[in-house]
Amino acid sequence: MQLKHLISKTCVKCSTEYPADSNIMTCPNCGIEGILDFQYDYEYVKKQWKPFLHSYPGEDVFRFSLLYPLDPHGEKPRMQVGPSPLVRAPRLEKKMNLQGIFLKDDGRLPSASFKDRASIVAIADALSRKKQLITAASTGNAASSLACLCAAQGIKTVIFVPASAPPAKLSQLLTFGARVFAVEGTYDDAFELSLQAAKHFNWYSRSTAVNPVLSEGKKSGIFELYYQLEANDFPDHIFVSVGDGCIVGALAKGLLELKELGMINSIPHLNGVQSTGSQVIYQAWKQGREQIEPVAATTRADSISVAFPRDHIKAIRNLKKCGGSFMTVEDEEVFEAGYVLGCNTGIFAEPAAAAAFAGLLKRHSRGEIGSTQKAAVFITGSGLKDVAGAAKAASTSIRLNKGPQVLETVGEALSDWI
Ligand SMILES: Cc1ncc(COP(=O)(O)O)c(C=O)c1O
Ligand SMILES: [Zn+2]
């Protein structure tokens, strides 16, 4: 069906345009690297945006359907995704002498990560194509998000993970009833196999970057931020962590669209934060190229540990278009940031999410963010996803032996703290 708000989908490599509703996921000329990008009729969207938003009977991410490659009136999945809370951090604002610090707590989405924004739109797309089974390769948040939202829907999920995947990461998947295949090999082998299986069995694929619907769904993070803050309070800086580059590329596109629709006059500085132990996109961006040179990843922040970032072109191109920049932080800075965030705001972030906050702390400590400025940080995943990693910089518990002196010991241990 031809949808009025959509024009086409275009290959990021060779610029060939395809009908927006065609079944191809990547460009047939360029193969797996031919990631597609949707184009919208912004004049049409501009006219319809407010009436649609006001008539939409909810607050979830589908109120922004005019900027997704879907029929805005089509069937919606059962699970509600969004809005996630936007938490203000007055104690941090005071300590850091900043005008505003806003934390977009996506750890409180249904499966506890930002990935729900993409999965829910992919499920709506799968429903419109009458698909009964969705596959993905991942050991982390993308797969658990898919399995969670599909469990609510009654859609089956098949997940391919590398055999080395830690058991803790599998428990969410297995509890949501996913069929999980442990592939002898690397994450890249699992990724390749999931693509082959999708093709062979005609399954719907929720593979990062390769399915272009995913980055469209992720734009809802920016749209929610806009409506939670209103234009006047929109931040000067936005921070988000970067692995494959899909989230940052999507947030950048969302910002460009807000500008295109006349909702903001200037675009905040979008900061894409990588770990020094996984900085392939940062290196390419620094050297002014879109091509990447894959390097084995060593960061302990597992969700952003990526050797071959799949969505690097959209990430680098879109960030450049909106005038943002990439940066890196050390793992120690990530752990420390998770602790500072927890103590001052009550938000428990997994290391990959704390990396974004570490980016804010770093730029602030360098004097690059001034006292009149406001910053928003996307907290993309809950610390409950990786409890050991999340608590790495926190203090340890104090051991007590039962006995007559026990309360004295408690008092002494707290004497310089209370
Ligand atoms: C918690 C969290 N933060 C950040 C990211 C980075 O997103 P992307 O790989 O799209 O750059 C991920 C991806 O898995 C994630 O799970
Ligand atoms: Zn192409």
What's the arrangement of secondary structure elements?
Blueprint: E1 6-11, E2 17-19, E3 36-40, H1 42-55, E4 86-88, H2 90-96, E5 100-105, H3 116-128, E6 133-137, H4 141-153, E7 156-162, H5 167-175, E8 179-183, H6 187-201, E9 204-205, H7 213-218, H8 220-229, E10 237-241, H9 246-260, E11 269-275, H10 280-286, H11 312-321, E12 325-329, H12 331-345, H13 351-365, E13 374-379, H14 387-390, H15 406-414
Parallel strand pairs: 5-13, 6-7, 6-9, 7-8, 10-11, 10-13, 11-12
Antiparallel strand pairs: 1-2, 1-3, 4-5
Helix pairs in contact: 3-4, 8-9, 9-11, 12-13
The protein binds pyridoxal-5'-phosphate and zinc ion (ZN).
Describe the structure.
The chain has helices at residues 42-55, 90-96, 116-128, 141-153, 167-175, 187-201, 213-218, 220-229, 246-260, 280-286, 312-321, 331-345, 351-365, 387-390, 406-414; strands at residues 6-11, 17-19, 36-40, 86-88, 100-105, 133-137, 156-162, 179-183, 204-205, 237-241, 269-275, 325-329, 374-379. The chain is an alpha/beta fold and 418 residues long. Helix 3 crosses helix 4 (141-153). It has 15 helices and 13 strands. The chain has a domain at 86-112 and 219-390: Rossmann fold, CATH 3.40.50.1100. Bound molecules: pyridoxal-5'-phosphate and zinc ion. Pyridoxal-5'-phosphate is lined by residues 113, 115, 140-142, 241-248, 303-304, 350, 352-353, 380-381.
